[in-house]
Amino acid sequence: MSTAESLSPVSQGPATYADLEAVDEHLVAEIIDGELVAHPRPAPKHGIAASLLITELTDAFGRGRSGPGGWIIIAEPELHLGTDVVVPDIAGWRRERLPSLPEAAFIDVASDFVCEVLSASTERYDRGAKRRIYAEAGVADLWLLDPRAEFLETFHLADGQWLVGPTFDNKTAVKAEPFDAVSFSLTVLWPLDGPEANDISNAQ
């Protein structure tokens, strides 16, 4: 179920917000280039990685306990960017650009940072249309996190184009814009892959 017509047969032409609201609440729904796109909630490793990355970023840049603070970090916000409605896994705003949260269920201020956690059902959109949409909206920094490959790619926007930034694996400490004031190990995002996972398996 990836198009407006398959999810809402009465819809004619480009998808509307009413079409999006009609999607089963167990699915993540977006309007991308006029098309209603829906996909399942993420697999556990995807969800854990996203949650732990939010913890790392919020501790340093949200609450400012281990870093400089100055950011609002939100999990899966609904962003209205022109006619597109997208739901990134993680988005961040510098506080001066989002001094207060809107009362609406969505945010129409383009974020300064987006991280998409790649999965088989979303990677085509994350690398394709959504990456273009973020660039057109002026999102300054984009991270693509792949829990399957345990790999992080970073991109910085310059003159409307994405410049490829540093990439990171489990052997390289993550230190990248816009959060390069601190560093952390990518391995913290997959806690069940280390010795603790073996201990759990042996105990069962």
CATH superfamily of the largest domain: tt1808, chain A
SSE topology string? HHEEHEEEEEHHEEEH
The percent range for strand residues is: 25-35%
Shape-level CATH architecture of the largest domain: Alpha-Beta Complex
Main CATH class of the largest domain: Alpha Beta
CATH fold-level assignment of the largest domain: tt1808, chain A
CA radius of gyration? 18 Å
GO molecular function, one term: endonuclease activity
Protein name: Uma2 family endonuclease
InterPro entries: Nuclease_put_TT1808, Restrct_endonuc-II-like, Uma2
Keywords: Endonuclease, Hydrolase, Nuclease
Describe the structure.
The protein has 204 residues and is an alpha+beta fold. The chain folds into two domains: 41 residues, no CATH class; 162 residues, tt1808, chain A (Alpha-Beta Complex), CATH 3.90.1570.10. Helix content is 25%, strand content 27%. It contains six helices and ten strands, in the order ααββαβββββααβββα. A six-stranded mixed β-sheet has the order 3-6-7-8-9-10, with helices on both faces. Strand 8 and strand 9 form a beta hairpin. The termini are far apart.
